[in-house]
Amino acid sequence: MNAEWIGYALGAYLMGAIPFGKIIAGSVARIDITRRGSGNIGATNVARELGMKWGIATLILDALKGLVPVLIFSSYHSGGGLSLEMGTAIVGVCALTGHQFSVFMNFRGGKGVATALGVYLVISPLSCLGGLIVFILTVAKWDTISLGSMFAAAVMPLFFLVLGKPFPLIMGALLMAILICIQHWENIQRLIKGEERKWRKRPHQPSRSSNRSSSSSE
Questions:
Q1: What is the spatial distance between Cα 19 and Cα 30, in angstroms, rounded to a whole number?
Q2: In what helix (H) or strand (E) does residue 69 lie, and over which residues does it extend?
Q3: Residues forming beta bridges with residue 108, ordered by sequence position
Q4: Which of 77, 85, 152, 171 is 20 to 30 A removed from 210 (C-alpha atoms)?
Q5: Is residue 212, in this structure, part of any structural domain at all?
Q6: Is residue 218 part of a domain?
Q7: What is the C-alpha to C-alpha distance for residues 150 and 111, in angstroms, rounded to an integer?
């Protein structure tokens, strides 16, 4: 891997590391989103704490963290010994790990679902549609954002395989699914115990404490 590839990978990581949810919460409401609700910096927690419009803004910005680096790489890379598909997978995974293990947050971060979505939108919009359908059906059935997010991430490598995507992209999607599920480990434990928070269920008191038992997909 030459300097060009290292530059793309590092740039993707740094872009992914920008904690937009934390920045928005601090700017709009003067709060530390890591101390509210689930403590997560992603769109779900921001939506619960600040309102849907700010959750959507966070979702879009987090998705752009995955979309922009992959789009730039796929448009301007000059070879350098690795295939386009391998490089795309590397850049996508770097953007995701930047979000999940941000250098600006002491290597902590969000779950990565929106950032992965941005990566997938460049690689395979049709697979994104399939993942969205899985997500909607799962949330409609179990009313749990975290479960829908994990299911959607898990089926992406299968969609890539069915659509005949190159092997490096399939493996990249598989690695991203594993990373997303690892980041959902606390949610998985709560799901097993039947304690995971439902999306449409609202507590009697506003979620303004540092209670970390609530669910978040991001």
A1: 15
A2: helix 52-76
A3: 102
A4: 152
A5: no
A6: no
A7: 10
CA atoms of 81 and 159, how far apart (whole Å): 28
Q: Are 67 and 122 in contact (CB under 8 A)?
A: yes
If you search the block for the tokens 């891997």, which residue do you land on?
Answer: 1
Q: Which range among 48-57, 176-185, 193-202 shows the weakest confidence by mean pLDDT? A: 193-202
Residue 212: phi and psi, rounded to 5, are -95, 15
In Å, how far are 10, 111, 201, 203 from 208, measured between CA atoms? 36, 21, 16, 11
Amino acid residing at 145? I
Tokens read off for 56: 């959507």
Torsion sign over Cα 127, 43, 179, 169: positive
Q: What is the pLDDT of residues 9-68, one digit of tens each?
A: 999 999 999 999 999 999 999 999 999 988 999 999 999 899 999 999 999 999 999 999
Both tokens of 209, joined, read 């404490």
- Is there a domain that residue 203 lies in? no
Angle in degrees, CA 187, 190, 191, rounded to 5: 85
Cα radius of gyration (the chain): 17
Which amino acid makes up residue 66? G
Dist. CA 133–CA 126, nearest whole Å:
11
Tell me how far apart the alpha carbons of residues 21 and 40 are, in angstroms, rounded to a whole number: 8
Letter for the amino acid at 173? A
Using DSSP, state whether 40 is helix, strand or coil. Answer: coil
pTM (2 d.p.): 0.89
Domain range for 18 is: 3-193
Number of domains in the chain: 1
